[in-house]
Design a protein that fits this description.
Blueprint lengths: L3 E8 L6 H13 L4 E6 L14 H12 L5 E4 L11 H11 L3 E8 H4 L8 H7 L1 E5 L15 E3 L9 H9 L10 H10 L1
Parallel strand pairs: 1-2, 1-4, 2-3, 4-5, 5-6
Length: 190
């Protein structure tokens, strides 16, 4: 048996929402990934830290949201690495810790358009397989991608964590934008 194809979907997941879940589901069911790991990032170097909900809350919401789907896994792997968290180091440590897996780094086309600003972006591209999913307003020229970078043709769901946080702060009922288990938990804690 070959190595397990494992997608690394890294992000703040502040909070995780149905757009994240639907994309990851698509990657498992249509793009041949055996698993998608929701890698909750403790601190994105490109984001202000005060915008983030607590690490514990964000990982808990992912755990509640992925439930019994056997191809998803919540991961706090980056919580145990030096901060700020850089993808190049995370991917290196993952390969060391799980040699039985082939990792595929999943990013949105919005991140691809600024990928040259990422820490050691050339090394990430050289050492890893990248899967780019489309984001509205961020087209990618597929003909100019390096051999390790693949553009996916997934459905585009325009939902953002920022929208959900804003709606919650305004007292809106956004239960259909996040997983029901996460919604119930948020109603109790927020």
């Amino acid at each position: 048996m070959g190595k397990l194809k494992t997608g690394i979907f890294s992000g703040s997941f502040n909070p995780v929402h149905i757009g994240h879940l639907a994309l990851a589901n698509y990657l498992c069911e249509y793009e041949g990934l055996n698993e998608v790991w929701f890698m909750v990032s403790p601190q994105n170097p490109l984001k202000a830290e005060n915008e983030l909900w607590s690490d514990e809350l964000r990982i808990k919401l992912v755990e509640l949201s992925i439930g019994d789907y056997p191809h998803f896994r919540a991961s706090d792997f980056e919580f145990h690495l030096p901060r700020p968290s850089y993808s190049v180091y995370t991917l290196e440590k993952l390969r060391e810790a799980y040699p039985e897996r082939d990792f595929y780094f999943i990013i949105g086309s919005d991140n691809w358009t600024c990928f040259d600003r990422w820490f050691q972006s050339e090394r990430i591209i050289a050492e890893n397989q990248l899967l780019i999913y489309p984001r509205s307003g961020h087209p990618v020229d597929e003909t100019k991608l390096p051999p390790t970078v693949h553009l996916l043709h997934t459905p585009v769901l325009e939902i953002s964590s920022t929208f959900i946080r804003q709606a919650l702060s305004e007292g809106k009922d956004v239960r259909y934008f996040i997983h029901p288990n996460a919604w119930e938990y948020l109603r109790k804690v927020k």
